[in-house]
Amino acid sequence: MRDLAALPAPARALREKILAACATGDIEALRIPIDWNELRPLFERGARRPAGADPIETLKSLSFDRAGREMLSIARAVLSQPFLRITRGPFESYEWPAFARRPAPPASEEEARALWACVRFADLAASNADGRPKVMRIGVGADGVWHYFWNAD
Questions:
Q1: Are 18 and 33 in contact (CB under 8 A)?
Q2: Strand 136-141 versus strand 84-88 pairing type
Q3: What is the β-pairing status of strands 91-96 and 136-141?
Q4: Hey, which bits of 40-122 come out as E strands?
Q5: Which residue, among 58, 30, 34, 33, has the nearest Cα to 44 in the 3D structure?
Q6: Omega of the bond prior to 55 within 30 degrees of 0, cis?
Q7: d(Cα 26, Cα 10) in Å, to the nearest integer?
Q8: How are strands ordered across the β-sheet holding 146-151?
Q9: Please, are residues 149 and 72 in contact by the beta-carbon 8 Å criterion?
Q10: Domain of life here (predicted)?
Q11: Strand pairing category for 146-151 and 91-96
């Protein structure tokens, strides 16, 4: 889906807040949407970070430039793509980009650029179990809770 009006208002508001933070070029600006949550979003799987670790430092460590600019650029690219509505029982969430969960070969050079803009530099040479690029994803609940920003592979 591309129609942002189809998003519940809280999910749309969080998306806008993340994009506004990305537009600043300062990773610290993401602290506001991160702290909107009671629990912080997940930025990596299986990491052994100490309880209370600073999420901004985590994002910086995942960023090729170690300042977080890569992660801001990827978040902006991810949230600029079509999204999916995911329903699991009574729980509804939204995930960007749709092509991460429903992969298909890019139909054009523009689609290929959009896909690769959602991949961390550190993951360019890697692929998932299906041989596809490790695309970063952002998951947001219908209630506006930011659940994750990671590649699920």
A1: yes
A2: unpaired
A3: antiparallel
A4: 84-88, 91-96
A5: 58
A6: no
A7: 24
A8: 84-88, 91-96, 136-141, 146-151
A9: no
A10: Bacteria
A11: unpaired
